[in-house]
Amino acid sequence: MKRIVFLILIALTSAFEAWATTPASEAATYILEKGILKDSESKLRGCDWKSQLSDCREHLIKVMIGYVKQKKYSLADQHLPKMYDVIFLKGVRFPSPCPDDTITLEGTKAKYYWIGYYQAAYQIKLGLNSPEARKYALRAFLCSGYDSYNYQIKDGKIDSTNLGRAEFIKAIRDIHGDNPAYDISLFTEDVQANVGKNRMAIFKDGTSYAKAIKYVALLKNAARRCNDLGLHPDFAKFYDDLAALWTHNAKSWQ
């Protein structure tokens, strides 16, 4: 319950351009230097996922971060299916277009590390030079910067490589060429920047149910704008799914 409340607070009350989350490079270095990787590997092998879900998923994510830091991408990749299960928590968590999780890292300045499933999956597949990276690319970048007005990324990555605007444009162009339905420059300058700026204005003085509903309207308008611009339907679906999530979570303020 404590974990769920924490995740809701992150999802609903962050109105800033970046969160005070531990950077990916710092988290990975800490996990290796403090022997956390070996400790979590050992504990993960004997984890009871039914009665120790919270502890087990922390060990899982720490192990994956450690493997990626060591460039053992194939080992990290083996854990992706389980990561999917414990982050999505189908039937327990309301479906999110950007499922994520947090782990505690007491020895770091920020005390915790935030990680997104799609960002992690994309970066692991990239590390493997796997063609499967293509299917994660768009969602990984959308989740990295959807509420940033100038694409200063909140993190959520599993390694220190950047998932910023320039990388977004290049990655999608490498996959789809000059297809106008995947014009990332247009998307970030028109749709995404507008959402980010207005989000900051909406939540400038705190949060409330009325403000959350205004944000839902903003997301729905963004979805319509994506369609008006002729972008691929996946862009509009992303904002529609975000609107559904916020509609659900806003009930906590009624």
Q: What distinguishing features does this structure have?
A:
254 residues, two-stranded antiparallel sheet, 61% helix, globular
Kindly describe this structure.
The chain has helices at residues 2-13, 24-33, 36-45, 53-69, 73-78, 80-88, 117-127, 133-145, 165-176, 184-202, 209-228, 233-249; strands at 100-104, 112-116. It contains twelve helices and two strands; from the N terminus they run ααααααββαααααα. The chain has 254 residues and is mainly alpha-helical. It has a two-stranded antiparallel sheet with strand order 1-2.
Chart the SSEs and their pairings.
Blueprint: H1 2-13, H2 24-33, H3 36-45, H4 53-69, H5 73-78, H6 80-88, E1 100-104, E2 112-116, H7 117-127, H8 133-145, H9 165-176, H10 184-202, H11 209-228, H12 233-249
Antiparallel strand pairs: 1-2
Helix pairs in contact: 2-4, 3-4, 4-6, 7-8, 8-9, 10-11, 11-12
Short description:
The protein has 254 residues and is mainly α. 61% of the residues lie in helices and 4% in strands.
Cα end-to-end separation:
20 Å
Count all strands and give the number.
2
Which strands sit side by side, in order, in the main sheet?
A: 1-2
What is the percent of helical residues? 55-70%
- Shape verdict: globular
What's the helix count?
12
Main structural class: mainly alpha
Instruction: Report the β-strand fraction as a percent range.
Output: under 5%
- List segments where confidence is low: pLDDT < 50 over at least 5 consecutive residues: 1-19
Secondary-structure element order, as H and E? HHHHHHEEHHHHHH
The major sheet is characterized as: 2 strands, antiparallel
